[in-house]
Design a protein that fits this description.
213 residues, alpha/beta, Rossmann fold, 7-stranded mixed sheet, binds S-adenosyl-L-homocysteine
Length: 213
């Protein structure tokens, strides 16, 4: 798969833009600098791959804006080999960022066409989530829980209880909550029955949908 100096140069500029916008974590900036985002989108949009904006992918979905990917990852603040569940695999770009950070990734996509094309891409790019399933993210992955962190990349009208229950004590859920506009929300499970909630401003995501089946 093709990468070149022009793309690399653009990624370096993108990473420095994200630093100016408040992304401080150097591991995340290094992920942005190294992951060829243009390979996660339609070749016809390659020229726009390193502009800090969301772009269309298959079936009316979007690849999140690089800033949003970096911001959610920074809120997740993962350490090496933590167990992370991602809801809304989409293009696989956020997954690639998590993979770059040496995490054990479990990821769920509800759109079958996207699930198939992104599976192929992961094979080609040697990105190896522990599990990648076609299913409904509202259910999480009960059998593989609990998780150190859960990251949701679609806008959810509510905070799904099942996801909160799949967090370890000390685990974090990063989720954009709301219908038309979403408030970026971090939930920390501080004990069996206690949660701490923080919010981080407004974002716009495609909606998290109930499964078609
Ligand atoms: N991280 C992705 C974001 C894609 S957009 C990227 O940057 O490419 C959000 C994704 O969430 C879409 O692919 C959509 O199909 C998926 N999605 C929506 N509702 C879902 C659900 N209930 N379970 C799993 N995935 C869902």
């Amino acid at each position: 798969m093709e990468d070149n100096f022009k793309h690399k140069g653009r990624r370096r500029i993108l990473a420095s833009e994200l630093r100016e916008k408040g992304i401080k974590d150097h591991r995340i900036l290094s992920a942005i600098e190294n992951i060829p985002r243009h390979l996660f989108i339609d070749p016809g949009l390659s020229e726009q791959a390193y502009i800090d904006k969301a772009l269309p992918i298959e079936n009316n979905q979007t690849i999140s804006q690089p800033y949003t990917v970096a911001f959610q990852t920074q809120l997740l603040n993962p350490s090496d080999r933590e167990k992370i569940l991602e809801i809304g695999t989409g293009s696989g770009y956020q997954t690639a960022v998590l993979d770059y950070l040496n995490l054990d990734i479990y990821t769920i996509e509800r759109d079958h066409a996207l699930y198939r094309s992104t599976s192929n891409l992961f094979d080609k790019m040697k990105i190896k989530p522990k599990k990648f399933i076609y299913g409904d993210g509202f259910n999480g992955m009960h059998d593989d829980s609990p998780f150190d962190g859960i990251i949701v990349t679609a806008g959810s009208p509510v905070i799904p209880k099942k996801l909160v229950m799949q967090l370890k004590i000390g685990g974090r859920l990063i989720i954009p909550v709301g219908k038309d506009v979403q408030v970026m929300t971090k939930i920390i499970r501080i004990s069996e029955n206690e949660l701490k909630k923080e919010t981080f401003g407004n974002f716009r995501f495609v909606p998290m949908l109930k499964n078609k089946n």
